[in-house]
Each structure stands twice: as structure tokens, then as C-alpha cells.
Design a protein that fits this description.
The protein is an alpha/beta fold. It has helices at 4-8, 23-30, 43-50, 75-78, 101-113, 130-143, 181-192, 205-236, 240-247, 269-279, 285-295, 297-312, 340-348, 363-370, 392-395, 399-403; strands at 14-17, 36-39, 69-72, 83-86, 119-122, 152-155, 174-178, 199-201, 320-324, 353-357, 382-387, 406-414, 427-429.
Length: 431
Amino acid sequence: MKIYQDLLDKKAKLGVIGLGYVGLPIALEFAKRISVIGFDINPKRIEMMRNGQDPSKEVPSSEFEGRDIVFTDDLNVLREANFFVVAVPTPVDKFNVPDLKPIIGASSTIGKVVKKGDYVVFESTVYPGCTEEDCLPVIEQISGLKMGADFKLGYSPERINPGDKKNTLRTVVKIVSGSDAEALEEIAKTYEVVVDAGVHRASCIKVAEAAKIVENTQRDLNIALMNELSMIFDRMHINTYDVLEAAGTKWNFLKFSPGLVGGHCIGVDPYYLTHKAEALGYDAKVIAASRFINDNMARNVARKVIQHVLRNTPDVNNARVLVKGVTFKEDVSDIRNSKIIDTVKEIQAFNIKVDVVDPFAEPEEVHEEYGLELASGAGRDYDAILIATAHAPYRSLTPQDLYDITRPSGLIADLKGMFKGRITERDYWSL
């Protein structure tokens, strides 16, 4: 079952299922050389993309121009594809248990449209074994086809980093894997069309799945260490960023920083690994401890702000806090798994009024996802300002800008250390 040349010759089409932060850039990049069908179950998003708009605000409208792509929510149109890429989200539920509903739903969709000779490649982050043990049976049952004899299967973990214009699909090595040697080679050659950095051929699908989980689990562990250090150093009254700056002069020091761990990767993926480990009878203590530290960091930040307000505000009943930044990282609109929400709710639990502003977040999305109303702008006389995200507009602020809207007894809580050494007329704290 050869597919690569047919795609290049446009005798076959490539279908991308799920057009979010991962799927849309992939679809548009392939559409420079290959006929692509972009499929999403959200008709509103489909209409926006037909008009050259990325609902996630990551891809500029110019990237839609001159692309051989059709956007659809119609299964009959998707059925025209022969090489399917699945890029749907893989979240966890409120108990941090992997929620496979989106990817199982996508597998069901594949089962309805896959044909003999087709290829199916999953990009969604999952635990090792999920592609073959959870997704494949759904495809085979619904389609009546068998992997190997009728269609090929593969896994190629996404490495899209929202807001990053340097490390892109083209510039980052792509891991690929296949259900057999032929599948591996055809999938690898297909991805080489859009990945200038080249591809790494993993020995099997499970290895490729595990590699993706390890990438983010490793970062989670290192950030957890920094967060734990920051809590220790805070009790010693020394600045963590000063310590890291000094330690970073050693050639082999790994440069990680403390902070809130949100988003869809670092704050979620390790739970997929601990879930699978538990199913196999192993208690992943180190990974679980890191998740505990990072998940509780938002409440530790809240306590620091609350303590200052309660100790330094004459009229606590009228205390006010300003939170600047609600997206999970700087200069993006992505609010998924934003940990600053936990901080806000913890502060509000003490009947302290909290105004939240963010120049990148969509107010409707924030309200729908978290029930939180974004303020149209900052007020004055705040008892504390919490700068949670290093957005470009915040990096250009001066200390005086912060003094102007805080009381003399106010606190500037700067999670990213942007104003370290510059705040002299207010209390200052950072991780």
C-alpha cells in the first residue's frame, strides 16, 4: 500500500481531523504541496477558517492564501481522503484521569470513512499503547477492515508550541512510527514534505507515544524542582531568580524557572503516563510528586497575596487585587488549563475583589470555560497586583505604571521576575 507518491501527484488526498492549535498548522503546511481536507466537528470554526481566520489566533490570514485545502464538517467530504491525520485534544477530567472521549470519537469518525489502502496517523498525545489498544479496535469494528491487510496505522506525536515562531512544524525534528516497515517509510516520506528538520523513525508506535510523554514529563519534573526551591528560598528571604542566575553560570546547569504549569502539554501529559503505570501495577511516585507540587503552586501564590492583603489593608472588606494575565503562557490566547484561575478563586474565597485583565484572552472564552468575567481595564488603588503572565505589553511597563494604580502599602507580585530589582516604592515578591 503505497501512498506517498499518490499524495504528491494529487491522486490521493490528506485529511486532518481536528483543526485546533495542532491540526490547522499541519493542514495548511501540507496544503502547500498536497490536496488537503480539513475536518472539524465545530461548524463555527469551519466557517471562520473558510474565511481565512484561525479561531486560535495563531496562524495569520496570509497562511490560508494559495493553499489546496477544503474545510468541512461533512463526513462525505472527509471520505475522499486517503491519508488521515488525527489531531484532536486529549485532556484529563477533574480527577486528572485521561479523557479519551475526543480521540475515541475521532477513531469512530475514521472507522466511518477509512477505505482499503488508506493510512491513519494519530498525533494526539496519549499513553503508550493507546493507539493500538484503544483507538485501533474502534476503527476496525466500525469499518469492518483490518489493520495491515486493509489499511496502515501510524503515530507521529505533535510538537506544536503555541506562540513560538522559531520552533515550528518545519524546523523541529518529527518523530514518526508505523504499524510495519512499509507504513513507517511511507509515513516518514510524507512528513518529510513539510518538515525541513527531518524525521526520526521510531522502532514502533509505543516508542513514539512514550517519547512524547517523556518530553513533557521531564519538563514537569524540572519545573517542580524549581517551584519547590522557590518555596524554600522564600522562607530564607532570598530571591529564586538571583539563585538561578548564579547557578546558571555553571556550564552544565539546566536552566528552568519556577512558575504555574498550565496548558495542554506539561500540565496534562504526565497524568497519561501515571494512569498507564497504575494500570500496570506501578506507582509512579516521582512523577506524581511533581504533579502535586505544580498543581498546588497556584494556591501557594494566592496565599502569598492573601497574607499581604490581610496584614497591610486597613479596610479588608474593600480590599482589591488586580491579576494581569489569564492565558497559560505569554503572548498567546490559549486559556486551556490556566492555573491562574485557581489563584483567582482562592483569593476570591477570602471575599477579596479581584479584577482580571488580559490583552490576548477572549472574554467570551474565559467566561464560558471558567465563569470568570474579564475586566475591560485596570482600576486604581489596588492592594496587590499579581503579574501572572509575561505578555509583551506587561514587559514594557515601568515601575511607575504599577505605583500609579496601587496603594502605598500595596504588593507587586511578579511571577516571572520581570521587575526584579526595579520595584523600590512598593513591597515586591516573586517566585
